[in-house]
Amino acid sequence: MNKTAGTVTVGQLGERGVLARILAQLTAAHAATLGPGDDCAVIGDRPGFDTVITTDTMIEGPDFRLPWHAGFELGWKLAATNLSDVAAMGATPTALTLSLAVPQGTEVAFLEQIAEGLDAACRTLAPGCGVVGGDLGTAPVIMAAVTALGQVAHETAVTRSGASEGDIVAYAGELGLAGLGLSLLFSHAADDGVAHSRTLNELWAEHPELLSAQLAPAPPIPLGPIAAAAGATAMMDVSDGLALDGARLARASDVALHLDGAALTTHFGTQYGLEVPVTAMLEGGEDHGLLTTFPAATALPVGFHQIGRVGHRAAGDPELLLNGTPYAARGWDPFAPIALNRRG
Amino acid sequence: MNKTAGTVTVGQLGERGVLARILAQLTAAHAATLGPGDDCAVIGDRPGFDTVITTDTMIEGPDFRLPWHAGFELGWKLAATNLSDVAAMGATPTALTLSLAVPQGTEVAFLEQIAEGLDAACRTLAPGCGVVGGDLGTAPVIMAAVTALGQVAHETAVTRSGASEGDIVAYAGELGLAGLGLSLLFSHAADDGVAHSRTLNELWAEHPELLSAQLAPAPPIPLGPIAAAAGATAMMDVSDGLALDGARLARASDVALHLDGAALTTHFGTQYGLEVPVTAMLEGGEDHGLLTTFPAATALPVGFHQIGRVGHRAAGDPELLLNGTPYAARGWDPFAPIALNRRG
What we know:
Oligomer: homodimer
Largest interface: A-B, 86 and 88 residues
Enzyme class (chains A, B): transferase
EC number (chains A, B): 2.7.4.16
Largest sheet of chain A: 7 strands, mixed
Strand order of the largest sheet of chain A: 8-12-7-13-9-14-15
CATH architecture of the largest domain in chain A: Alpha-Beta Complex
Organism (chains A, B): Leucobacter exalbidus
Pathway (chains A, B): Cofactor biosynthesis; thiamine diphosphate biosynthesis; thiamine diphosphate from thiamine phosphate: step 1/1
Pfam families (chains A, B): AIRS
CATH superfamily of the largest domain in chain A: PurM-like C-terminal domain
Order of helices and strands of chain A: HEEEHEHEEEHHHHEHEHEEHEEEE
Radius of gyration of chain A: 20 Å
Shape of chain A: globular
Number of domains of chain A: 2
Number of strands of chain A: 15
Distance between the termini of chain A: 33 Å
Helix content of chain A: 25-40%
């Protein structure tokens, strides 16, 4: 690890650049019908027997802070974000593994709460799925990596790349609330991450729907396989904001997504009695709803709302438009030098 | 996380105690035919279609040190230890996922080397298996969690609990070398973990087999499915030393393992021209060979050597005996307050 003039650090290159370099080193697994780049990889080539797999990690500091996250919510969110990636392939979650590393002085009760949260999220969001194994070690901060498995019950997994011109763009789940919840936490946070101008309990009492969406999200997991059965052409879990992830789906499918601001406002402008601005819907992030495209004639399954249409995209054209105008989403990078990963 | 008189930390309770508490929180996954506690969990209930899954993490500090571990070896060892857990179920590894978290200032080249090591280990030890997905984030130290999937090609996975009185106890792989390699590194290490009285290059030149066994182990992965096909009754990956892991297999199977010191010396007393004492074989750890039991009449597959017999165990009897005498293995715990996890 000599530092010389020619070296590049991960902080300089950013997550996507680093991933591109790493992926270039890797030989494809024979059994993988879909490798890295989608919400999950797909293992197996017998239709109806495909297994999907995904992994997501939360690290104290960049991904969560103990003054904000009780163990239960941490475990819940870890399960929910991974289950959502499985659902986004049209698959039903079957099992999770947990790799947990904590400082020596961590209370056992905190780890029990993490396990309770993982378990409650599985029972609530994906009944039948559960933790089947894990690994426990020591680290200077709390690190929790979850890997989720799922089973594809229909012909093949749904990827990001199958959307066609004319398809319906639909969304299922909460939209914008999680980002507003994070803003609320930040607006009352001191530099060390502790809510101070209002206590966390006060914030919970005033805005349970915002803090719940941010700290213990409830993605519509069963709608993933239902969308697949209804003929979904493309699907993805929205984690970095509808605009940014929508542009990714459009790029993968080589199409443009035309979003309809009025439809967004109609379906998601009021959630739990709260007004949600379109900007929060587009850039809030951590929603973990399902952005899905369906053939034009599809009767959308209950839970999905049409928010736009898939259009043609020529080389150089924008991937995402709002009311006909190109919309450039701000991105985020885990290596960006900010205190906490603020999506959007 | 208030510290009160009634609280217990993970450092106080130790890994097994913490795991017992956590497992008590968890609802079983419907699809899991075998949950936590073996080398892998088993998913699926159609014989011949079972998927096994395992996860293992390496964290800078407790599990590895940058002055000793180049990125390539770190990636290799991560793959090898997980592949070995898959093989120990009698399964063929199909895919790995990688969750990697590193400090901002980490060189991209180091991550590329990790990927090269992972990939080379897959190609060499388990051709066809590869990395299918991952996650990249930031952390104060390097943390790498790998999850491995495997496919069971025969009737059912081989667990730790199927050994019967009269069975042959056999072992395949290197034995004791990895522990001797770690001792060699420690014997030349300053407090900060840097080899100083001899450089690492000098140590590699003198004892390539010891450092290779410790830093880039080569477990006999293909022998896992072969043992299963030959009728193995129980099998496990030896990671914490033959004595300690042997006692675990005996406990899980409710039998006693009678090890034969002369057989150990005959088959493993000289490896790569080096003399290996029986104590190193029993307590060295990180061997990642396959401890396997077979029915008495089995013609052992090439690569396996008989090292003992399975005997009856009454309540209170010892689980492991060497030449007829109870052998108490020293254990290790990742939360024990030592500089590096010394197995054995």
